[in-house]
Specification:
The chain has about 120 residues and is α/β, with parallel strands linked by helices. About 40% of the residues lie in helices and about 35% in strands. The relative contact order is 0.16. It comes from Crateriforma conspicua. This is STAS/SEC14 domain-containing protein. It holds the Pfam family SpoIIAA-like.
C-alpha cells in the first residue's frame, strides 16, 4: 500500500520483501512518524526486508528526522538485508559509506542512470 508524505513515497511490494522509498526535498520527523509504522508492519510480515532508497532533488534530513533515522537504524539493525541507494550527487554516494555501520545488511550506491541495475541487485 503506497504511503505518501510531502517528502517520501513509500511502496511495498506485494510479492516479496522489497520496500521502495522515493525521497525528495528535506525529510522531517513528521515524515518518519507517517512511514515508520508501515515499515515496521512490513518487517513483522516478512522478517528481513530490502530497501530501494531513491533520491531525487534530495536535501537531507532535519535534525529531528536525523534522530528518528538513527533510532530506526538501531532498532532494526538486523532486519534489513540490503539497501540500494539511488542518487544523483557525490554526497548521496557518500551516504552509502556513512550508512554501513548502522545496518547488518549490504549497502550499495547506484547513480540514477543505474536504477535498473539497482532494482536487479535489491531483488536478486
Amino acid at each position: 500500500m503506497p504511503v505518501t508524505t510531502h517528502s517520501i513515497d513509500f511502496e511495498a511490494s506485494t510479492t516479496d520483501n522489497v520496500i521502495h522509498l522515493k525521497v525528495s526535498g528535506k525529510l522531517t520527523k513528521e515524515d518518519y512518524e507517517l512511514f515508520i509504522p508501515e515499515l515496521e508492519q512490513w518487517i513483522e510480515r516478512h522478517g528481513k526486508i530490502r530497501i530501494l532508497f531513491e533520491m531525487s532533488d534530495f536535501h537531507g534530513w532535519s535534525v529531528s528526522a536525523g534522530w528518528e533515522d538513527t533510532k530506526l537504524a538501531f532498532k532494526h539493525f538486523s532486519d534489513i538485508e540490503r539497501i540500494a541507494l539511488v542518487g544523483e550527487t557525490a554526497w548521496e554516494h557518500g551516504m552509502a559509506i556513512f550508512c554501513k555501520p548502522f545496518t547488518a545488511g549490504s549497502v550499495k550506491y547506484f547513480d540514477h542512470s543505474q536504477r535498473d541495475e539497482a532494482m536487479r541487485w535489491i531483488t536478486g
